[in-house]
Write a structure and sequence with these properties.
Blueprint lengths: L18 H11 L3 E4 L6 H6 L1 H22 L4 E7 L22 H20 L3 E6 L2 E2 L8 H13 L6 E3 L5 E2 L2 E2 H11 L7 E4 L5 E2 H11 L8 E3 L17 H7 L7 H22 L6
Parallel strand pairs: 1-2, 2-3, 3-8, 4-7, 5-10
Antiparallel strand pairs: 6-9
Helix pairs in contact: 1-3, 3-4, 5-7, 5-9, 7-9
């Protein structure tokens, strides 16, 4: 998913399971800022692979922070925390002071990464900040995530490549925003004089059903003609109403979400239609 900018990047390899590789990367490249976006980040997979999720998503943060502490404590560090840490929420909306109650191995692992970031910040005076990001989507979202699964399936159905879309809990609600907006918030955190933790969200919540309605309507279809509820896609433990309060990000970073929910859904559907149409052209048989 980096093909569109790969010529502007220098890609090097590291492993969150191997601290020595992280130390060598920092020594060789001398970064001023490190953004840890690496994780086993698919919630359903965390139930089937909880140990791997813990090793990468939790302990991987410790390895990276400790490498920074040893190589160059002046490096500014961003940890991608998650709204999944709130899980079974105790208040709505969720703020930086809302108690955590994760409901998946992924959420638990992210919570460890969040607290170890705070611990290293306070113990070693690192400029280490955490962004408690609520769901952030874009046309480059992985196909295993429900938003991209919907947009991709809508495009396939519209183009006559498929007929139905099988989903789990249509009433599950999330605070969905555009990933491009959220990356700006990440960068702004590391430009501050002092590190801190921030909720990054739109402050609105929408259901999977609403996502389907907008996505199918965008291509002139009725979602009820194509969506099938399949219990195989229900989570063992569902989170409750996740909706973030981004007031702190607005007041201290000057940040707010710029892309509406409707714009996001339509953007994702358009992206998949363009991609699938391009694939269809490439794969057309040659004329006799």
């Amino acid at each position: 998913r980096l093909a569109h900018i790969q010529d502007r990047l220098e890609i090097v390899h590291g492993d969150l399971l191997d601290q020595d590789s992280l130390i060598e990367l920092l020594r060789e490249w001398h970064p001023q800022e490190v953004y840890n976006l690496a994780a086993q980040s698919f919630v359903p997979t965390s139930f089937s692979q909880p140990v791997l999720t813990g090793e990468v998503t939790a302990l991987g943060v410790t390895r990276l922070l400790d490498a920074i502490r040893m190589v160059d404590p002046a490096i500014r560090f961003y940890q991608a925390s998650s709204s999944e840490m709130f899980g079974k929420v105790v208040e709505v909306p969720q703020t930086e002071s809302t108690p955590f109650y994760p409901r998946s191995p992924y959420g638990v692992a992210k919570l460890y990464g969040h607290w170890i970031t705070i611990n290293y910040r306070e113990s070693y005076d690192l400029h280490a900040s955490s962004g408690m990001l609520f769901n952030h989507e874009s046309p480059r979202r992985g196909l295993e995530f429900v938003t991209r699964k919907i947009s991709h399936s809508v495009a396939r159905i519209k183009l006559g490549l498929d007929r139905e879309l099988r989903l789990g809990n249509l009433e599950a609600q999330r605070d969905w925003g555009f990933a491009g907006d959220y990356v700006k918030a990440m960068w702004l955190m590391l430009q501050q004089d002092a590190p801190d933790d921030y909720v990054v969200a739109t402050g609105e919540t929408h259901s999977v059903r609403e996502f389907c309605e907008i996505a199918f309507d965008h291509v002139g279809l009725d979602w009820q003609d194509h969506v099938v509820v399949d219990e195989r896609f229900f989570r063992p433990a569902e989170v409750d109403l996740l909706i973030g309060d981004p007031k702190k990000a607005l007041s201290q970073l000057g940040w707010k979400a710029e892309t509406s929910f409707d714009q996001l859904v339509r953007m994702m559907v358009d992206g998949d239609i363009t991609e699938l149409e391009g694939d269809a052209i490439v794969n057309q048989p040659e004329s006799p």
